[in-house]
Target: DUF1775 domain-containing protein
Amino acid sequence: MHRPTLARSTRRLGVLTAIALAVTVATAAPAAAHAEVEAEGARALDQNVELTFSAESESASAGITKLEVILPKGIAPTDVTYEEGPKGWKFAATDRGYTVSGPKLAVGEDAEYEVTVRQLPDARSLVFKTLQSYSDGKVDRWIELDDSGGDGHGHGHPAPRLDLKPAAPGAKLVSPTPSPSEEPSTAAPSKEPSAEKTPAPSAKPAADDTDDDGIPLAVPLGIGAAVLVLGGGLWWWRSRREGSA
Model:
């Protein structure tokens, strides 16, 4: 092979190598973006566990403004306490988890925050599905399980997953945190029985219209009146008969 031909072949090989490297870097960049949750040495049934969440930015023109987390079974929104996060961001509980949101972050800046969970459930792993919103309205949905929604090369949006060690010996599940509507009343219990008072029976009969034998007085009075009427009628009939005779 002539030297000019060899030189041209070498240059072409170098150009092809550079192009291949650029393509590799370009295709690998999206795979690097991810959302994660960490808690060093976390065990099932551990109490007051601090979780650290991080969500990488995938936008080249907008900043992250909100992260919405869907809590796994066994953790209620009332069990989560916000510790710290981006400046100006606030925590708010939702029906299925919580949100952490605030002023938009700088373009390309990742969102990181920490919360404390009252107690972890008795499970091998916990999945925290996350919706990541940007200032331009775009939403990254970190909700896939085991990267099942990706292209097979790590280009999906897997949900943050926290693997737990087995529960410590003697660890027990504590009672759930009561919601505001279920909080016990602080009023002192009444010392008096709650049963309604039964009115005392009256010493005087309801109606004084009976005799000693329990027969209503109207009965003998009626009989007496009937006897008088009958007797008077009989006397009048006899008087008239004798007069006519």
